[in-house]
Write a structure and sequence with these properties.
Pdz3 Domain, Transcription Regulator spoIIAA, globular, six-stranded mixed sheet, single chain, 2-enoyl-CoA Hydratase, Chain A, domain 1, 18 strands, alpha+beta, seven-stranded antiparallel sheet, 3 domains
Length: 439
């Protein structure tokens, strides 16, 4: 009788463990994938136990096994693997969603932003335009803070500052919410918002199958799927603040503008790379930037470098830019060289932050970044999980700046956090602070 009950229990589990796309894996197969991740981490990661000990990782694995055995669907099991991997606290070590259980191909037609005063809709489909800028209280009856925390547990980044914007981006992914038990199915979600009268109201969104590129988590004003949407650019048009001007379909890797009335050169650096399908290379842009600065030296007192949305690239490409700064003593002063940073800032731009910290008196303004100045880098694909078929990428080197003693995070000199009121009215308080220093 006991054997019969156990058999029925296992059969029931396997029946439930069917993915949205019809694929099925057994408990044993998920455990095999977990073992594969553990083995590859031990073999390939440059410093696996920098944050947690080997014994703690064994405990993490034991917990993951229990959760797999009690999981009710394939997406839940897949997210348990991500949760185990997230204990590494390394954003360059990731499961790539290119296997059987992709999590980003069914999306809700909204984007959400986290501000100092809460969570708000930053993009909504045009048929829900009245919800643009509304504050979110709960999702399917669960407090928004709790939902974000549950998603954060599945995200591998160097610190919780970096985990947060990724988790908020994942609020648009129906399969993530379903796999975590936030919603009952992937077809719709009910969200509780504060309306214009300050009263609670429940609104419903239907999901949309999606095959467009993965959302760039740095851009909370980027449209989540194809179609017509309301965002800060449609609402403010020409009054869109500089930091959001080239973050959607018109996205630029790097650009600058001379704020003549402020005697300031504003340079936004979004990606450390050559922009695809663009006539100008990074080196050509860098030459043009410094030629402009030199030719307009009498009208430029400050250089503001905006790294708030820069989440990586080829770090070696930045040294030509760094050398140009060091060559100009004018920008070695903390009143004349200001760097804007935030919780998106990660990987390659951290090298720039480190070099500027060492060789100049630059002041850093904004929010703590997504890593310390010592971090892992150069992700290398080590293989594919044997059953769920997701690719596993593991960092291969350590970028070491041990002189900066905080191993968790790099902190700004002047902390500035963005409120929803400032965002939706088009105010950039960090840039304002930079321009006003010692004026």
């Amino acid at each position: 009788m006991l054997l019969s009950k156990k058999f029925l229990s296992i059969y029931f589990f396997i029946t439930l463990l069917s993915c949205v796309n019809g694929q099925e894996l057994t408990i044993s197969q998920w455990k095999e994938d977990l073992n594969y991740i553990e083995h590859q981490l031990k073999e390939n990661h440059p410093n696996l136990y920098y944050k947690y000990s080997e014994d703690e990782f064994l405990a993490f694995k034991s917990k993951a096994i229990v959760e797999i055995e009690n999981s009710k669907n394939n997406l839940k099991a897949y997210l348990i693997l991500k949760k185990y991997l997230a204990n590494v606290y390394d954003g360059h070590t990731q499961l790539i969603d290119n296997g059987l259980f992709q999590t980003e191909d069914i999306r809700f037609p909204f984007r959400i932003g986290k501000f100092s005063d809460g969570y708000f809709f930053t993009v909504v489909s045009i048929d829900k335009k009245e919800l643009f800028g509304k504050q979110i209280v709960s999702i399917e009856g669960k407090k928004i803070d709790d939902v974000v925390k549950s998603i954060m547990a599945t995200i591998n980044m160097d610190n919780n500052f970096g985990k947060t914007p990724l988790a908020v981006t994942n609020l648009s992914y129906a399969k993530v919410l379903f796999g975590l038990g936030i919603i009952k199915n992937t077809s719709s979600v009910s969200i509780e918002v504060l309306n214009d009268q300050g009263k609670l109201e429940i609104v419903k969104f239907n999901s949309i199958p999606n095959n467009t590129n993965t959302l760039r988590y740095a851009r909370m004003n980027m449209k989540p799927t194809k179609g017509k949407f309301i965002n800060i650019e449609t609402e403010l048009s020409m009054k869109t603040p500089l930091h959001l001007r080239y973050q959607d379909v018109n996205y630029k890797f790097h650009w600058f503008e001379h704020l003549e009335d402020k005697r300031t050169l504003y340079f936004q650096y979004n990606q450390v790379a050559n922009q695809p399908n663009h006539d100008e290379t990074w080196n050509e842009f860098n030459d043009r930037l410094w030629n402009y600065i030199d030719n307009n030296e009498s009208t430029i007192d400050k250089l503001v470098i905006d790294l708030r949305y820069n989440d990586g690239g080829n770090g070696l490409m930045m040294y030509s830019f760094i050398n140009e700064i060091i060559r100009r003593p004018k920008f070695s002063d903390g009143n004349n060289l200001l760097v804007l940073i935030g919780d998106i800032t990660y990987s390659a731009p951290v090298i720039l932050i480190s070099e500027l910290s060492l060789h100049t008196n630059a002041r850093f303004i904004g929010f703590p970044i997504a890593s310390s100045l010592t971090f892992f880098s150069n992700r290398r694909t080590v293989g594919q999980l044997p059953n769920s078929k997701a690719s596993l990428g593991i960092a291969s080197i350590t970028i070491s700046n041990e002189w900066y003693r905080n191993r968790e995070v790099f902190l700004p000199d002047i902390e500035v956090e963005l409120s929803s009121k400032d965002y939706f009215s088009g105010k950039d308080v960090a840039l304002k602070k930079a321009v006003e220093i010692n004026n």
